[in-house]
Write a structure and sequence with these properties.
About 40% of the residues lie in helices and about 20% in strands. It has a single domain, classed as Metallo-beta-lactamase, Chain A (4-Layer Sandwich), CATH 3.60.15. Strands 1-2-3-4-5-6-7 form a 7-stranded mixed beta sheet. Strands 8-9-10-11-12 form a 5-stranded mixed beta sheet, with no helix packed on it. The chain is of the alpha/beta class. The N and C termini lie far apart (about 50 Å).
């Protein structure tokens, strides 16, 4: 079940019932045991999910780091903490957003956000229903130790790399990037505007990609898909992808005013599940916001961009 990647770094992968079907969690060897990075979704039976992993380890889990507050990364944090007694560590900004999103849920406000983007009421209702079901699998820890950029955890340096999530943190040491979802191979991390999110997540993400190029790690161990052997090169590829999508977004507005939802229908396949349409609309909005920041588009009083 545990896959050894290189000395001191191992990985365990769990299946997901989401648009992406798996998530990777990492085990980093430290003097007294292991540092676990990310925890998958919360489980109705944490013992059944985690006991095979714990029994295979040669030492206990000493601490748990959460890279970001999305359900497939933070969802099992409380479960593993209760099973192991290990403390949970989470980025300061990320935890604040985690509490807003999962601890103080406001379905009406959540639905209103999507309606403001031009989404039909039936589609917005489907998104709220999906979110309600997903919330049951988010067992975040209520009192983690809070991390700030520059902190160290067992010799790993904490970096704040925004974009995919506002408070997304990563761990860096000796040319290794424990990347969470800041980079992915074969697909691009979702970048979207949500209620209470930072105003320009794509602008944030461009800064993250530049920082990864600057760090130039030799390898990135990511939250999904394959390990990335050239993280700086992958950062450049993803930047080019978003620059192309910005151009396509601008082209979609030629001669017409569109809502973010209508733009999403032109940028992404039409036959998407409610959850995937939410991602598509959030990402279309992120690109429109970035174009507005550059002075290339503006939003009118009806919520349409032109």
């Amino acid at each position: 079940m545990i896959e050894q990647l290189e000395p001191g770094i191992a990985r365990v992968t769990f299946r997901l019932p989401l648009g992406i079907d798996h998530v990777h969690c990492y085990l980093l060897r430290c003097p007294a045991g292991h540092l676990l990075v990310d925890t998958g979704l919360g489980s109705r039976d944490p013992e059944a999910r985690w006991r095979p992993v714990l029994d295979e380890l040669d030492a206990p889990i000493e601490s748990i780091v959460v890279t970001h507050m999305h359900p497939d990364h933070v969802g099992g944090a409380r479960d593993v903490a209760e099973l192991t007694g290990a403390p949970v560590l989470q980025g300061r900004e990320d935890f604040e957003q985690c509490v807003r999103a999962w601890g103080r849920r406001d379905p009406e406000r959540f639905a209103a956000h999507w309606l403001e983007q031009g989404m039909p009421a039936a589609a917005a209702g489907g998104i709220v229903a999906d979110s309600d079901r997903l919330a049951d699998a988010v067992h975040f820890h209520p009192a983690p130790r809070l991390l700030d950029p520059g902190d160290e955890v067992e010799g790993w340096r904490v970096e704040l790399l925004r974009g995919h999530a506002d408070g997304h943190i990563v761990l860096v040491r000796d040319g290794v990037l424990i990347a969470g979802d800041t980079l992915l191979d074969g697909i691009t991390p979702a970048i979207g505007v949500y209620p209470d999110s930072r105003p320009d997540p794509l602008g944030d993400y461009f800064e993250t990609l530049a920082r990864i190029e600057e760090l130039a790690p030799r390898v990135a161990y990511t939250g999904h898909k394959r390990t990335i052997a050239d993280p700086a090169g992958r950062a450049r590829e993803i930047r080019a992808h978003h620059e192309d999508r910005l151009a396509r977004t601008l082209a979609a507005l030629a001669g017409r005013a569109l809502t973010p939802y209508e733009v999403s229908l032109r940028l992404f396949d039409g036959d998407l599940s409610p959850t995937l349409r939410r991602f598509a609309t959030a990402e279309a909005l992120a690109h429109l916001v970035r174009l507005a920041a550059d002075g290339l588009v503006e939003r009118d009083g009806d919520g349409r961009y032109h």
